[in-house]
Amino acid sequence: MKRSSALLDAGAIALSGLCLLHCLALPLLAAMLPLMGVWAQAEWVHALFVAIAAPVTGFALWRAHRQHRLPVLAMAGAAIGLLLLLAGAMGWPSHDAETPITVVGSLLLASTHVWNAWRRHRH
To answer: Would the keyword Membrane turn up in this protein's UniProt record (predicted)?
Structure first.
């Protein structure tokens, strides 16, 4: 069970990293490659990242919680991170705030999974 939890955390961290890469690197590539600009601005990409991140995070933290009770701060960090990703995907509160909100959400979510992995290895 420990190995599958490690894989879930690693997968969730990788997905958060992909979100971060999407938000920071793709706009630079989009300036050079018009085709990448179309993909980077596609709304379905944001929705896809959130649709993948939410169940992976939920399952990873649920499994971790079954082994060792998770602190409220870990659950709150994951929930806030997912909400920020969702807000960014929906363009809320504005289109201009989409990238910073998504970056903060990705970092918060990845940090929560790193903390969870650290706690698991500590026990």
So the answer is: yes
Nearest Cα to Cα of residue 93 among 106, 78, 83: 83
| Type of residue found at 1 | M
Please check the confidence at residue 80 and state whether its pLDDT lies above 90.
yes
Structure tokens at 82: 């997912």
Rounded Cα gap, residues 73 and 57, in angstroms: 15
Q: Whole-model pTM?
A: 0.69
